[in-house]
Protein: Cupin type-2 domain-containing protein
Organism: Parasynechococcus marenigrum
Amino acid sequence: MLKTALPSMAASALLMLGVVGCAGEPTSSGDQASSDAASTDAKIEAIFSGSQTLNGSDLTYPEGKPELRLFRVELPAGGKIPLHTHPAPMLVYVQATDSGELLNTRVQPDGREVSSVFKPGESFIEGASEPHYVENKGDTPTVVWVMVASVEGLPTTEWIK
């Protein structure tokens, strides 16, 4: 399972905007910006990288004209997003401040359910076409930021009845 702590909302914003890579290995600060670049006070830190989903499958991307999407999702206390899939991979970050935990339950091909709890500041990758549902079992709203590596015209979510 891929899980990592993100220390701040600023790091999350950099991650979601693609300044920090979401696939491959962490990079050194020298790889992030040329040493010849103008001096800056900005600190760029590789926070998360991964090439496998929560189920351990290798990432796959849909074919077509690439399109990145960013969503902020607020799940109220006791709230649930029912069983669904996504046709494109997603990087999910549970907001580090003012947020509760997220329970992610994946339904395996044999019908078994595998659950993982993600605490504020943690992130994970959801793969394409992997059925799951998410819940907020806590007493406070859970806020997640979702970056989707999709293509133009492809829906973000496909509901399972």
In short: The first strand starts at residue 4 and ends at 5. Helices lie at 9-16, 29-32.
